[in-house]
Amino acid sequence: MKRLTVAAIIAVMAAGVFTGCGNSGMTQQNGGNGTAAAGQTDNAGTAAEQTDNTGGTAGTGTQNAGTQDIGEDAALQAALEAAGVSEADASRVRVSKDRDDGRVVYDVRFDAGQTEYDYEILAADGQVVSSDIEQIRDDRYDDGNDNRRQNGSSADVAVSREKAIETALAKVPGAAENDIRIELDYDDGRYKYEGDIIYDRVEYDFEIDADSGEILEWSQERD
Fold first, then answer.
1. Separation CA 64–CA 221 (nearest Å)
2. How far is Cα 122 from Cα 127, in angstroms, rounded to an integer?
């Protein structure tokens, strides 16, 4: 009996040891699989992140390429070079941004001597798109006698051209006589001086009563 009991106890203990070893092996195997799965997931996430980063970088590059702009100063230089005029000799400079046939362009205007220049410059690379060069006509100015024929009659006004110029320039500190264009006109039953001043890339339009010297209209345009 004692021998049978001891044998049974030994058999039970042996079975327990065998079962424990088997479970331990399975646990280690499952642990290895879990690590591998987690590693695969992390790698997939990293790959996705790399894809997002690549897409974002490419998109930014495309956007920058589409918005390239040389700026106003470079556009002015491109127009001056095309005209063969130095910046020191240019007056009444005006630069404004516009669109033409879906392209962003700069309209550049300036005077040099008795010539008026108007250029359209491509904002992307400074290419000259179009140009218009005109001689300033003498009849755009008064002859200094303050008398001008309008509708067949002689104009006799109280305010001289020089006084009208002085009045207009006083409103734009720094502007000089070569920045202004002015002429005497007859409109709505009275004589008035009409003109504009372009100074520091800003354009001012005005009308001055030729009898009272009053400024009838004044406006400025800035980009």
1. 30
2. 5
